[in-house]
Amino acid sequence: MTVIVYCDRCGEPAAEGDHTACVAARTLEPPRYCPDCRRRMKVQVVPTGWTATCVQHGVRRS
Amino acid sequence: MPEILDRARARVLADGVGLDEASLLEVLRLPDDDLPELLQLAHEVRMTWCGPDVEVEGIVSLKTGGCPEDCHFCSQSGLFTSPVRAVWLDIPALVEAARQTAATGATEFCIVAAVRGPDQRLMDQMREGVKAIREAVDIQVAASLGMLTRQQVDDLVEMGVHRYNHNLETCRSYFPNVVTTHTWAERFSTLEMVRDSGMEVCCGGILGLGETVEQRAEFAAQLASLRPDEVPLNFLNPRPGTPLGDRPVVAGKDALRAIATFRLAMPRTILRYAGGREITLGDLGTRDGLLGGINAVIVGNYLTTLGRPATADLDLLAELKMPVKALSATL
After folding, report:
1. Residue ranges of the domains in chain A?
2. How far is CA B210 from CA B70, B79, B85, B213, in A?
3. Distance, in angstroms, between B26 CA and closest chain A CA?
4. What's the mean per-residue pLDDT of chain B?
5. Residue B120 is part of which domain span?
6. Number of structural domains found in chain B
7. Of B56, B76, B85, B297, which to mutate for an interface test with A (greatest number of A Cβ within 10 Å)?
8. What ipTM does the predicted assembly reach?
9. Which of A11, A33, A46 lies at the smallest CB-CB distance from B301?
10. What is the domain-level CATH number for residue B215?
11. In this structure, is residue B331 part of a structural domain?
């Protein structure tokens, strides 16, 4: 099971605070923060998808 | 029917001549009760002067983030605390994005870079990228690289870029509230050079930056005076970390009123849905706009945010019996 440590939209701890707005916003946004370490990721959006790269945890794709 | 719509019917629908600024302001001030009639007129104008075809385009960011300018709406400025990091797209990925865009039926592919203006590295990347796309994909290539020199305009023409996007963003009187690192006149200067070069001019902006209704009318009139081939209409999608990150989104009815007004200002131009329509208008409003003056869409994702799936827009166009403009019609 994957444990999400950090919110991938705002970078704050996923278990703290209310991330309802982040979840809603993420339907029209790619992730910006690595959910494992909260580093800002390098994100490339293309017309049909996105890739998000964390220097420590690698590439995530839509 | 409101008197202003009678006048618009005679001037814009019958003669194909856009309304002046004072008349555009009257249209923007029409009450909600008159909105259906306004949208119907704008749709008739679009069908009469542009036809039923809808131009479909995909856009991609070649160079994202790290921009030295301070456009207050933009998450790609390096001057704000936005989470967007700088990244470059390589040429194979650029060609693949063009290929996937063409597969949707799109005839336009716009390559965008977050810069004040292109440096030699970016121009070299463009030269290589445009060549690779033209060799591999049947699609028209457009570009949006900020402010240009005359030499760079000539270079883009020589590469085969057929349309250049450079948005004025908002009216001249409000621009200093949105951007302080360059002027409206500097942007206009690039647009004049693009026009003189023979490239098609694509110039629009963003509604909901805090401008007044009067300034929306001013903006529509200023765009019309430029006689752009295409006007992309964005609605502010407030981005975290930017100075406009806490602004409210434009109300749906105000957005539709603006769409129809811009159509009455520019009866013959390509009026394109661009960013922010998903949060401003939703699915129902998207349909209303296509029946209220819009005749072009950006499909799929935007530069740093996501859009509706291309299939959702294409299905809607089919339902509305609006054919996707064929590539042969753009050549």
Report:
1. 1-62
2. 16, 20, 27, 10
3. 35
4. 96
5. 3-325
6. 1
7. B85
8. 0.94
9. A46
10. 3.20.20.70
11. no
